[in-house]
Amino acid sequence: MTQQTVLLVDDEPDILQLLEITLARMNLQTQRATSIEEAKRLLESSTPDLCLTDMKLPDGNGLTLIDHIQHRHPSVPVAMITAHGSVESAIEALKLGAFDFVTKPLALEKLRNLVGHALQIKKDTDDLTSEELIGQSELVVALRDQIRRVARSQAPIHIHGESGVGKEITARLIHSLGPRSNQPFIAVNCGAIPPELVESELFGHKKGAFTGATVDKPGLFLAASGGTLLLDEVADLPLPVQVKLLRAVQEKSVRPVGSEAEIPVDVRLLSATHKNLGQQVRAGAFRDDLYYRINVIGIHVPALRERKEDIPLLAEFLLKKLAVSHGTDKRALSEEAISLLLQYQFPGNIRELDNILARAVAMSDRAEIAASDIAFEETLTPPQTQAAAATADIGPDQRSLLEKVRGDLEGFLADTERQILEEALTKNRWNKTATAKALGITFRSLRYRLKKLGLDD
Ligand SMILES: Nc1ncnc2c1ncn2[C@@H]1O[C@H](COP(=O)(O)OP(=O)(O)OP(=O)(O)O)[C@@H](O)[C@H]1O
Ligand SMILES: [Mg+2]
Questions:
Q1: For ligand 1, mutation pick of 140, 165, 324 (most atoms within 8 Å of CB)
Q2: How far is CA 400 from the centre of its chain?
């Protein structure tokens, strides 16, 4: 099992430290972000197992981040830290898809329970939608073979392909099929880090190395020790950092910013980009000696339009995933919807297919998705938020029940919560999807609550 990671979003150093210590004792890795923007950037490059966010952040309200995660990274459970007594925000957070909240001052026992339950649920959910490279086209069969072969070696691998084709999935598979699978896999999006911070992100820094470096920081190479580091969008690495990276690859050691000493690291290096790295080299934007080192083996992930026969299978898989993450019933595509998809060129590849399906599911409430529910990128309006969709169509009975739940949350009374959940469950014949909908909370949030109260079977 790889160590699980918790993303902490807070701008108060004391709280961050307290959280880090508490989670470290639970054998969890932590990532910290001190603003919403920084959290969003980190989420682009790696997927934590849990996110804990404060409400008041320098660039806005933590609720914005919850909403963002719910839409962009629905597999990441998120909980909010709220000021004591601010029940309104806690409820708002739950409506937006947070699975729970903790109040400040932090009660560590409660915090530990919340984290424990959340990670357990994450694991259960992951088992349902395990990491897979779906496809039966010749191109994908060949890709899977290649992945299996390179997984055993330790050679640096460069993965190229258009955006959204599955480069990151490919990297994760290389890691998980290889001998380092129970060590960390860390993905970093080189293009998403401000150029002046890349060096310290990768190699770490000593306290006082530059303004803002208030503590020693290990860096991602060390964090990935024993495991695999994916340098995603590697073409975006600034040239001066390319020099340092070359050294790290050759010497198998890193020197943190502001430090004299080199630290040995044992990391398997994978890299990826949608750009043509050879062309970048010829244009002088990428060092040829580094290119030579990281591109020992190249893997090409084909575009979706080159393997259209995989579209129906992929769509089915993605619809199943959507149903799990949204706690709804799985939908199927009509014949017409499938032939419409087969005509499209998918410039954004599988990520785009996933987005198209997510919108189709939101637009239609029938079991079968019709061609008219499918909209391609150009003709779209922003989708409704999930919470708005969930509460829009409930009747007066359910609404008063919902009011009651909200009222009782105020006192944090587990007994009352249990009673309400039992009532709602009975009313909905123990159908969890319907119960969550009636209560105006997400399926995940309901599962979490049932587990917490011991009502899960
Ligand atoms: N063959 C596949 N089977 C199932 N899901 C896939 C497959 N390929 C890609 N996906 C899914 O499509 C999405 C995009 O994949 P991924 O992030 O790996 O692509 P990428 O090439 O790294 O994209 P980008 O260039 O935008 O970073 C992910 O949600 C991934 O799970
Ligand atoms: Mg990617």
A1: 165
A2: 35
Q: Cα(372) to centroid of ligand 1, in Å?
A: 25
Cross-strand bridge partners of residue 333: 369
Angle at Cα 123 formed by Cα 39 and Cα 361, nearest 5°? Answer: 70
383 found inside a domain: no
- Give residues with Cβ within 8 angstroms of 457, minimum separation 6: none
What is the value of pTM for the model shown?
0.60
In one-letter notation, the amino acid at residue 193 is: I
- In tens, the pLDDT along 161-197 reads 999 999 999 999 999 888 888 889 999 999 988 999 9
Q: Using a 6 Å cutoff on CB, does residue 302 contact ligand 1? A: no
What is the percent of the chain where pLDDT is above 90? 47
Q: 217: which DSSP letter?
A: B
Q: What CA–CA distance (Å, rounded) separates 84 from 215?
A: 29
What is the total count of domains within the chain? Answer: 4
Clarify whether residues 124 and 146 are in a common domain: no
Can you tell me the distance from the alpha carbon of 27 to that of 133, in angstroms, rounded to the nearest whole number? 30
Residues 6+ apart with CB under 8 A from 258: 205, 206, 207, 208, 209, 210, 213
Q: Does a structural domain hold residue 381?
A: no
Dig out the tokens for 289 from the structure: 């000696």
* 409 alpha carbon – ligand 2 mean position (Å): 39
CATH code at 351? 1.10.8.60
Residue range 98-140, pLDDT digits in tens: 878 888 888 888 889 889 877 876 655 454 334 578 888 899 9
Please identify, by atom number, the ligand 1 atom nearest to the C-alpha of residue 169: 18
The pairing of beta strand 157-160 with beta strand 297-300: parallel
Average pLDDT over residues 251-265: 91
Task: Pick the atom of ligand 1 nearest to 274's CA.
Answer: 25
Q: How confident is the model at residue 352 (pLDDT cuts 50, 70, 90)?
A: very high
